[in-house]
Amino acid sequence: MFTHFRHNIKKMELVPASGGVFEVTVNGENLYSKNETGLFPKAEELINKMESL
């Protein structure tokens, strides 16, 4: 994802957590939550969601 959007990223924050939590939030909108699905997303899935914003 970073490579795909490298020219558009103004700020990126990694928040360490425990318990296998993996969430992707863009401009305050939660695009993906592993806690809800139980699965890690495919990169293409996240890129498509981000491009649709």
UniProtKB/TrEMBL annotation:
Taxonomic superkingdom? Bacteria
Task: Name the Pfam families for this protein.
Answer: Rdx (PF10262)
Q: Which InterPro entries match?
A: Selenoprotein_Rdx-typ, Thioredoxin-like_sf
Q: What is this protein called?
A: SelT/SelW/SelH family protein
Coiled coil region boundaries: none
Tell me which species this is from.
Neobacillus notoginsengisoli
Listed A to Z, the keywords are: Redox-active center
Q: Which residues form the signal peptide?
A: none
